[in-house]
Amino acid sequence: MSTHTVSTEYMKLSVSERIQLVEDIWDSIVAEAPATVGLSQAQKAELHRRVDAHRADPSSAVPWEQVRSKLFPSKP
Questions:
Q1: Among residues of the chain, what percentage have pLDDT more than 90?
Q2: What's the whole-model pTM score?
């Protein structure tokens, strides 16, 4: 199948089917080449910094519902 055919065919899928396709593709990449999709040292350091900051002040966490409402405001 050509790249052009794939790029037009996936658009025929529903959003949930496309999300599942992306997850399946990502899982296949990780399974074949786990070392190539690892985090950099800078990314690991940032994750550790964020976890440490949360542990120091758990009240600073923002509930998912609040984040979601900011990302996806309801339509009027």
A1: 51
A2: 0.45
